[in-house]
Amino acid sequence: MKKILLDAREMEHPKPFELSIQHLQTMTNESYLYMLNQKLPTPLLELAKQKGFYIATKQDTSQEWHIIISKNSTINLEELFNV
Amino acid sequence: MFSQGGLSLEQAPPLSVVLRFFLTASLFGILLGLFLLGSHFNIFSLSSYAIQIMIVHLLALGIMASFMLGALFQMLPVIAGVVIKSPLKKVTIVHGLFIVGFITQLSAFAYQSSPLLYLLSALYLGSGLLYAIVLMLKELFKVTTHSSSSQGIIFALLSFSLTIFLGIYLLLAEGGFVTGSLFTQVKELHYSFALFGWLSLLIVSVSFQVIEMFYVTPKYPNSMSNYLTFTIFALLIVKSLALLFDYPLPFIGMALSTLFLLYATITLDRLNQRKRPTSDATVWFWRLGMGLLIVSSTITLLHSIFYVEEQFIQLSYITFIGFGLSIVLAMVYKIVPFLTWFHLSNQGYMEAPMMHDVIHPKKAKIHFYVHTAMLLTWMINTQTTIIGSLLIIASFGWLLYNLIFAMKKYSYTQKHTQKIEW
Fold first, then answer.
1. Among B47, B17, B50, B2, residue whose Cα is nearest residue B132
2. B420 inside 8 A of chain A by CB
3. Cβ B350–A25 below 8 Å, yes or no?
4. Which of A60, A82, B182, B228 is 20 to 30 Å apart from B147, CA to CA?
């Protein structure tokens, strides 16, 4: 699986939203988006769910969010947090 | 343009809901420049009072209120998570009544002897603007947990409704329909609620959310975001009562100026602590706006303690207008590229222009220079000048061009590129 990393922690809004959508629109079953953000990007997650993507989220000890979005339903997204 | 707190995609208003107000504001801006130019050459046979009141209303209502209503229709779902259902139909009514009412009002001011024009303008403008406020407040009152921004927007809208009611009284008094025994007091309250309530409270409320979100800055202090908007609104209410009961309270002006000084200083400090500073014209619009608010508030504060020359009082008015205009332009240059890109992307246009292609940052920067030059010209010479008028036309003309360019990009993409299901 190809990891597309998007570190949005210091990006000015709405750039993270724009870049994520760009990645989602071209995503294949062999890739996934790994996003780092200061807050949970609820609108992006809602859009992704609406479009049939699979999502996993995790907040680390420094309160930052790790978000994985994939088209592939056969993989365990939680495991990708450790990759 | 979405909050990180939660928002469904259906909540983004159609582009035309927002753009019609921005286009209207730009057109009224050009009209203001032409009117000032005409006044300079004594083309209009109008009294100086008529010219003055028309200029003030072109600025406050034709330009500022148009921008702010458009921005509110966009920002309400973002900031407060509230949605106005079937917005197109409702906004068409608001916009139509607003345009007709405002043009009638300008005509009433120009031909001061026509009571009918005063009555009609009160009717059209009052109903159009109050309808917009009811649409928004009705939804805002349903919200169970308010943020400092959504709470502040409620105070801003309440101030706007008071401004309108007071304005209706003034129009009816001018038309001879009411005695107008409280005309002077109501006039002062009308502009106090318009400038310090509606305009300032809206900017303050929105900034509590967008400064941190757009520019990745530290948060405002909780004491400020939690209490500032309520305090300003409460001071305005106390000022109203004091004026109506003829009990002067000079400390209110001092308190308001001090609060605005504090707010502007903290905003500038937050902008200076951006985590990833990029050269973005909208930040400069915010900085300019806050700098002008500091100048305006300082003069007002000094004026409430000492004697201040008339030219400095004029300067405080111009810098306050400059503050409002700078911030709405910062918002317009964030809102229009985002909405255009977002609607096209969501509709599945893979070749949707990126935000910086909708209105290139360089174009916004050009506008910043023209806008700054315009304000400097007016600050140096508060009398009507040819160059000052031409710079107003250039500023709003440039904005109009940028908005039309964005609209053309939108329709071109829809007509000439392919949609995908994603």
1. B17
2. yes
3. yes
4. A60
